[in-house]
Amino acid sequence: MTILFLILIILASVILGFIVLVQNPKGGGLAGSFAGLSNQFMGVKQTTDVLEKGTWIFAAVIGVLCLASTFFITGSDSGARVPNAGAPQNQGPVIPNNTTPAQPQPGK
């Protein structure tokens, strides 16, 4: 599942990068080169609006995919956790169960 999220994030990032590179703040990007066709179809203003909405949509998609992918990422046990964190701690000396205290031998 993590691989799927990774592929989708990379794909959305590439599309977002293309959309951003197409735009030009002064109207000279690809939106300006389609001006002859877009004036008849949607108008130059409409083209820049579509590119801006696409930028926001793909930025939001990348953010949502990144947040959602954290639920599917599994961690490794290479020291990320504290060993024996849930184990009870010994409070005193360890006394074996099946032994009796040593008796002093007479005559020594």
Chain-wise SSE layout:
Elements: H1 2-22, H2 30-33, H3 35-41, H4 44-69
Helix pairs in contact: 1-4
Mean pLDDT: 74
Shape: rod-shaped
Structural class: mainly alpha
The beta-strand count equals: 0
Radius of gyration: 33 Å
| Beta-strand proportion | under 5%
Instruction: Give, in order, the helices and strands.
Output: HHHH
Termini gap: 74 Å
Number of separate helices: 4
Largest sheet: number of strands, sense, barrel closure = none
Helix content: 40-55%
Spans where pLDDT lies below 50 across 5 or more residues: 36-42
Quick structural gist:
This protein has helices at 2-22, 30-33, 35-41, 44-69.
Describe the structure.
The chain contains four helices and no strands. It has a domain at 2-22 and 35-69. By secondary structure, the protein is mostly helical. The model is unreliable at 36-42 (pLDDT under 50).
Task: Record keyword descriptors for this entry.
rod-shaped, single chain, mainly alpha, 54% helix, 108 residues
